Amino acid sequence: MTHWIIAPVILPALLAPTVVLAARYHIGIQRVFSVVGVLALIAVAIGLALQTADGSILLYQLGDWAAPFGIVLVGDRLSTMMVLLTAVLALCVLLYAIGSGWDDRGRHFHALFQFQLMGIMGAFLTGDLFNLFVFFEVLLIASYGLMIHAGGNERLRAGVQYVLFNLIGSTLFLFALGSIYAETGTLNMADLANRVTMIDASETVGIRVAAVLLLLVFAIKAALVPLHFWLPSSYAEAPAPVAALFAIMTKVGAYAIIRVYTLIFPPDLEVTAGLHDTWLLPAALVSLAIGMVGVLAAKRLDRLVAFSVIGSMGMVMVVISLFTETSMAAALYYIVHSTLAGAALFLIADLVRTGRGTLALEPEPPLAGAALTAGLFFAAAIAMAGLPPLSGFIGKLLVLDAAFGADQAVWIWATVLISSLISILGFARAGSVIFWKAQGMEPVETQHSQPSALSYVSVGALLALLVAHTVFAGQVHSYTGTMAAQLFASEPYVTTVVETPGKLSTPKEGY
Amino acid sequence: MELLVASAIGVLTSAGIYLMLRLRTFPVILGISLLTYAVNVFLFASGRLTVGAPPVLRDDMTVYTDPLPQALVLTAIVISFGMTAVVVMIGLGAFLGSNDDHVDDQPEGSEGQP
Q1: Domain-by-domain residue ranges, chain A?
Q2: Which chain A residues are closer than 8 Å to B87 by Cβ?
Q3: Which of A100, A329, A336, B8 could bridge across to A481 with cysteines, CB 3.0–4.6 Å?
């Protein structure tokens, strides 16, 4: 049993209090700790991804208690890839926060950042539903602090909405867990996968309610229409690096849906039949449409980016809800793309704010550092809207291809293509108003300074990752294909978790 | 007893949801507190209701109560307590800053109206 798999949780959990206790008043030392910690996380994540690349399942039994009794951490291809994606995104975001000075505008940014990472990593790695709830809470509690970092009335108001909405979501999560436990007597995911199939067809009321409640909870996290109302104002008001890190949080919801609804309630399970195609797919199509219409309708750049995140989550959920191997491979490819593109856009919106002072989509005098910011926005907008040559285009092709044989192919194709056109219009309008119309205005003396070089480097790094995601699309897609195959053949996962011996796996041992 | 516990959960939930729809910070926070009480009782009942039975295995006992929901409830209580404190502080900050305790976004032009 390797201990490395718990490192992504332990490392930030130890770093955060160290930063608070030892380096409370020294922003320089905090920065060093934080960057070194994230670099170590990337190294660990690469190691874990390499270990699971051959299809093996990493299992870690906490305290050596056997699976249904103790909590387990499980690493397979999907969870290690999500951990790696989080770590890489965290490095870019952290560099931006340091470069732009956001981390110095309030207290404890780095400690909260590390706690946030701990929650996200734990949510990806855990193999226990109640433990998933606990890690959701860890990441939410840290995100409450990050969300209102640097203060301000508008931000606090948005923070209240964000916290209240998520509190309601957590309560729903507990209701779902309670009904699952009452029906099955276990909360371990692999054990649940076994027990749900044993439920008699005439007594499925409780487990069906639980499955729907759980889907609602994850849909809140993934900002699926009609549960998306918290996202635009919270993401727009949050500090830019925090909003960029939040780009992975919607993916935590998507990950939880993929995990629970392939492992515990797979699409061929009689009990939850109809949940995916009757309910999830239409909701996802509506999110895609509303997100992209929001891009066109937004009056401010940060709202525009927030709506584009909703739209791209809609796209992810559309392919997920088809629940075939091809569609899951496309969804996982698109998740990586949309995380990187969404984070880059949030950071670029902050570059615009730094050079211009306002994000309203109205003509203003040219902003400081216009040429470079405009170029970055152009590239990120192309990626997000899904135009060639960047990875959004490839992702969209994969989505359309996966939907080709499905029953609802006409709806999916129509929504995806029309909403793409709308989002292209929205991004083109925003870009031309901010960057082109400025050329016709009289330049005025302003106190707005050009963003620092490190800010540009971190945004450039995100865009470089997007380019790499495009260039190596073949390799990445074949790897997500093997990931999807592993998800739908869940037998090795279940047997690894349930049958690995530990304390209590034989009666009377340890007494 | 089943009826008593079930109706307690039901009443707490409905009162909580009613208060949550009031759109001012204070009633909403009260509503969420009621809802978390409801979910705590619900979690407790998910291990089946037994009276006077120990949760720890002993040799001379034949009837047990399920210890796991009690552990889950403990975790849930701690988290919801802490979260309520956090939301009170943030809500207070937002109210003192803008002199407005609406939870929803106000239409433009009516900013600062009590």
Answers
A1: 274-471
A2: 160, 163-164, 167
A3: A329
For chain B, the structural domain boundaries read: 2-51+64-98
Which residue has tokens 């030392």?
A29
DSSP A300: B
Percentage of chain A lying above the pLDDT 90 cut: 66
Helix (H, G, I), strand (E, B) or coil at A502: coil
Q: What contacts A100, CB < 8 A, 6 or more positions away?
A: A240, A241, A350, A354, A451, A452, A454, A455
> Would you call A469 exposed, middle or buried from its count of C-beta atoms within 10 A (0-12, 13-18, 19+)?
buried
Cβ contacts from A onto B, under 8 A: 88
Nearest CB partner across the interface for A160, out of B35, B80, B90: B90
A8: preceding bond cis by omega (within 30 degrees): no
Question: Quick one: pLDDT at residue A446?
Answer: 64
Dihedral of the CA atoms A43, A47, A53, A55 (nearest 10)? Answer: -140
pTM score above 0.80: yes
pLDDT (average), residues A205-228: 91
ipTM above 0.85, yes or no: yes
Cross-chain residue pair A156–B97, CB shorter than 8 Å: yes
Residues of chain B neighbouring A141 (CB-CB closer than 8 A)? 82-83, 86
On whether the CB atoms of residues A17 and A111 are closer than 8 A, the answer is yes
pLDDT value at A88 more than 90:
yes
Contacts of A341 (CB under 8 A, 6+ apart): A312, A380, A383, A384, A391, A392, A466
- Touching A: B residues 20-59, CB under 8 Å: 20, 25, 28-29, 32, 35-36, 39, 42-43, 45-48
Mean pLDDT of A357-367: 77
Give CA torsion, residues B50, B52, B53, B59, to 10 deg: -160
User: Would the CB atoms of A171 and B105 count as touching at under 8 Å?
Assistant: no
C-alpha to C-alpha distance for A156 and B106, rounded to whole angstroms: 15
Is the pLDDT score of B113 beyond 50?
no
| Closest residue in chain B to residue A180, using alpha carbons only | B46
Residues of A in contact with B73 (CB under 8 A): none
What integer pLDDT is reported at residue A410 of this predicted model? 92
pLDDT in tens, B5-38: 999 999 999 999 999 998 889 999 999 999 999 9
Read off the tokens for A18.
């160290």
| HSE-up of residue B53 (Cα within 13 Å, Cβ side) | 14
The alpha-carbon gap from B53 to the nearest alpha carbon of chain A, in Å, equals 18
Distance CA A154, CA A284 (A): 30
Locate the chain B residue with the closest alpha carbon to A177.
Answer: B43
Mean pLDDT of A87-102: 94
